[in-house]
């Protein structure tokens, strides 16, 4: 798998960002400034350019478009470097109806396989409190390292939507159609479950070590899959779907299959949601993410880009420093933001880091005056 690092980025009419050329180095890039000045918008612009979607929910062109723009279009321009430091330009023009993408000036329809990991300040809370977020998190991260899982998940979800539509509308002979769909759901359920278990087994070997490496503390970190179909065959899952069909008919949707599975993050053998403080939950979540990055490197001998949006909440100064020391020792490209003055002071001490100061959407050479 080819890996990329961002070298230069320029965006026009994207949120509050001014069309300044932002330059990045291949290591740590600290994006600094007070709240509301556009730090997160830089991360979002890179995320949209790389993945063709935002990390924010329910966002599209109208939300991206700057309020003071003269023309209703957004222009992205960038330079990426591959693992051999070869340059590649990636650009796009977006309007209300369509987006055109270009690589080295040539039009392209398929998106580039640019891998990145985004770390949000609120995701630790959502991960520990919301089962749907955990499922989405796992599906997203497994899909990024296993293309077959991504395809099977897409087919499973397509079959599930069709099944739910039949259960809701109940057209003629819908039960015959559901029986055929259930064969597909059973097959995909086996594949998805086995892949999830394999992923959890692989990442487990990194979780505890990553926690110790970042925070210098000895704790056993493990994730388990809470599923009723572990060890079940395709026939077993098919029979389960058929047995639940009368209930599904009454409520008008599929009440259970692997799309309802959950995950439990264990901290020293105990559920981290019930046992851990908010600080320990944040430490566990960050350790899980960086364990994923190490697993990614193990599988592909390369790193994704890492975007970190102000994760200083719930962490004390000692843990900030340990996290920063870990980032300094790492080999992946990092873009990290903060408005926390104390955390900002720590980031500014990183030797060799690229400091990017943002004020009112513009890139400045010096810290914001107070």
UniProtKB/TrEMBL annotation:
Pfam name, any one: SMC_N
Residue positions binding ATP: 33-40
Entry GO MF terms: ATP binding; single-stranded DNA binding
InterPro entries reported for this sequence: DNA-binding_RecF, P-loop_NTPase, RecF/RecN/SMC_N, RecF_2
Subcellular location field: Cytoplasm
Gene3D superfamilies linked to this entry: P-loop containing nucleotide triphosphate hydrolases, RecF/RecN/SMC, N-terminal domain
GO cellular component: cytoplasm
GO biological process terms held by the UniProt record: DNA replication; DNA synthesis involved in DNA repair; double-strand break repair; SOS response
Residue ranges annotated for the RecF/RecN/SMC N-terminal domain, each copy included: 6-353
Keywords from the named record: ATP-binding, Cytoplasm, DNA damage, DNA repair, DNA replication, DNA-binding, Nucleotide-binding, SOS response
HAMAP family, A to Z: RecF
Family under the similarity heading: Belongs to the RecF family.
Function: The RecF protein is involved in DNA metabolism; it is required for DNA replication and normal SOS inducibility. RecF binds preferentially to single-stranded, linear DNA. It also seems to bind ATP.
Protein name: DNA replication and repair protein RecF
Encoding gene (name): recF
